[in-house]
């Protein structure tokens, strides 16, 4: 049947639907408030049972992943599943903020891709707390100043962010989630700045590397300077007219910069993966990944021996990386990521075997696979 409603009629329908959606969102928010009360009651009961350290965990990544996954699965259009999930991401973010506003440390300053990743994962109701260094993010969460932290871990062009991996070696923090961000870089300048006046291009070293071919081709003789972050590069470009920055949309918006060239990364499917760190272990969501650090003696076949239990159990590895050991005791330190949860029987067996064969075996946490 053709739709014969007039513009006014359709708008009246939209108004009525909005009213219903709003009432439903308020009902949902009241449920979240009740969830918060129940969580508190459960912790009080646990303390009375003699568990003095029991603490309320408001943020539940496994539950959020399940909610978002289901929303995407049952979407029938016409909106795209990802767009619908983003809307619910924000609704859950606001509901969680009613229960307890989350402080999220991230590798700043404002305008970095890590901030964009933190917002993508936690939504806009979380309180972002920029840190100057990856170490700073870890220590804010370790000390309890912030509830969670977001750090870059791997780029599809440049490989692992070794500093993040090094932090995991000594930190008691657990991984509670992962975020994937497509990385699109632009060449940014302050408004009205002419191409001819650019004498220097600033960016984080990873961004300079990700755009190396493009910069070699278009700006071969202009000095490049690596600075602490893309956000910092954008801040410099906003105040120094001879300086351009390589950074993303968020930095461009934040510092009011113009795009002299868009999408300048050498590989168009350039993505960065971020990890969310927290103090709690995350229960299974049904679609999980696990990360561990494992180290073995320097002897022939050492890596094969460590990986063989995964092959036998048919568990897929999603990442393996090596870092130089920082103590003489260990010859190799491997970061291994795989599908499954530390509570799964087959993963428990693999971990037990690795504990026997290695000189160090540190689980970094199980967490839901990125949904968005
Ligand atoms: O189910 C919970 O534990 C809730 O707190 C509710 C809710 C939600 O809004 O759906 C909010 C925050 C949590 O991170 C997960 C889900």
UniProtKB/TrEMBL annotation:
GO terms for molecular function: chorismate mutase activity; prephenate dehydratase activity. The keyword Glycoprotein does not apply. Pfam families: ACT, CM_2, PDT. Residues 1-103 form the Chorismate mutase domain. SUPFAM superfamilies: ACT-like, Chorismate mutase II, Periplasmic binding protein-like II. One of its GO terms (cellular component) is cytoplasm. Its main location: cytoplasm. Coiled coil: none annotated. It is found in: Cytoplasm. Residues 103-279 form the Prephenate dehydratase domain. Keywords: Amino-acid biosynthesis, Aromatic amino acid biosynthesis, Cytoplasm, Isomerase, Lyase, Multifunctional enzyme, Phenylalanine biosynthesis. It catalyses: chorismate = prephenate; prephenate + H(+) = 3-phenylpyruvate + CO2 + H2O. Its EC number is 4.2.1.51, 5.4.99.5. Pathway: Amino-acid biosynthesis; L-phenylalanine biosynthesis; phenylpyruvate from prephenate: step 1/1; Metabolic intermediate biosynthesis; prephenate biosynthesis; prephenate from chorismate: step 1/1. It comes from the Bacteria. GO terms for biological process: chorismate metabolic process; L-phenylalanine biosynthetic process. The record marks 272 as: Essential for prephenate dehydratase activity. Residues 291-368 form the ACT domain. Catalyzes the Claisen rearrangement of chorismate to prephenate and the decarboxylation/dehydration of prephenate to phenylpyruvate. This is Bifunctional chorismate mutase/prephenate dehydratase. It comes from Sediminihaliea albiluteola.
């Amino acid at each position: 049947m053709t739709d014969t409603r007039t513009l006014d009629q359709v708008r009246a329908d939209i108004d009525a639907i909005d009213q219903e959606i709003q009432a439903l969102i308020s009902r949902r928010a009241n449920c979240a408030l009740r969830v918060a009360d129940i969580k508190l009651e459960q912790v009080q009961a646990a303390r009375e049972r003699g568990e003095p350290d029991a603490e309320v965990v408001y943020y539940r990544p496994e539950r959020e992943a399940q909610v978002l996954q289901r929303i995407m699965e049952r979407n029938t259009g016409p909106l795209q599943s990802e767009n619908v999930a983003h809307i619910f991401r924000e609704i859950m973010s606001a509901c969680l903020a009613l229960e307890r506003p989350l402080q999220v440390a991230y590798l700043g300053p404002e305008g970095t891709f890590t901030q964009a990743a933190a917002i993508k994962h936690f939504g806009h109701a979380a309180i972002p707390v920029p840190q100057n260094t990856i170490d700073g993010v870890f220590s804010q969460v370790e000390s309890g100043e912030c509830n969670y932290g977001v750090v870059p871990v791997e780029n599809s062009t440049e490989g692992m962010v070794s500093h993040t991996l090094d932090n995991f070696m000594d930190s008691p923090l657990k991984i509670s989630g992962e975020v994937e961000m497509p990385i699109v870089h632009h060449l940014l300048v302050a408004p009205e700045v002419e191409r001819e006046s650019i004498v220097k291009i600033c960016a984080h070293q990873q961004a300079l590397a990700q755009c190396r071919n493009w910069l070699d081709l278009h700006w071969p003789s202009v000095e490049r300077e690596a600075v602490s972050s893309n956000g910092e590069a954008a801040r410099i470009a906003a105040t120094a007219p001879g300086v351009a920055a390589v950074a993303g949309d968020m930095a461009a918006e934040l510092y009011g910069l113009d795009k002299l060239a868009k999408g300048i990364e050498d590989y168009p499917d350039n993505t960065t993966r971020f990890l969310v760190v927290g103090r709690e272990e995350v229960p299974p969501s049904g679609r999980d990944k696990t990360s561990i650090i494992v180290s073995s003696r320097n002897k022939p076949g050492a890596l094969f021996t460590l990986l063989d239990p995964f092959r036998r159990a048919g568990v897929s590895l999603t990442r393996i990386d090596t870092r130089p050991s920082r103590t003489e005791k260990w010859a190799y330190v491997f970061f291994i990521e795989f599908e499954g949860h530390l509570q799964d029987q087959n993963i428990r067996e693999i971990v037990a075997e690795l504990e026997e064969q290695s000189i160090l075996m540190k689980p970094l946490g199980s967490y839901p696979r990125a949904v968005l």
